[in-house]
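DATA CLASS: polypeptide
GOAL: derive C-alpha cells

***
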Amino acid sequence: MKDVVVYTVDYCPYCKKAEILLNEKGIPFKKIDITHNENEYRQKLGEYYGIKGRVTVPQIIIGGRRIGGFDVMQKLENAGELDKLLED
C-alpha cells in the first residue's frame, strides 16, 4: 500500500471527515497537524505542489502525489478508485 499523508488543522470538519474515511477503511496514514504554523505551511505546500496562493486543508498525499482534499478523496472512494490508487 502506498504511503498516505494528510495535512490538517484542528478546527477543520473536512480534515476530520478525511481521517474518519481513512480509519474506517483501515488505511494507515501520517497526520501532519499544521494548526500552529498554518500560514507558513499552507504557503510552503502551495509552493511545493505548484498551487498559487494558500492551499486548503486537508491536503491528502498518496504515494507522493497530491490528490487534493476530502471532496476529491470521497469522489475517488465513491467511484471505486481510491483502493486502486493506494495499490503499490
In short: Helices lie at 13-24, 38-49, 70-78, 82-86. The chain has one domain: 4-86. Residues 42 and 55 are 5 Å apart (CA to CA). The longest helix spans residues 13-24.
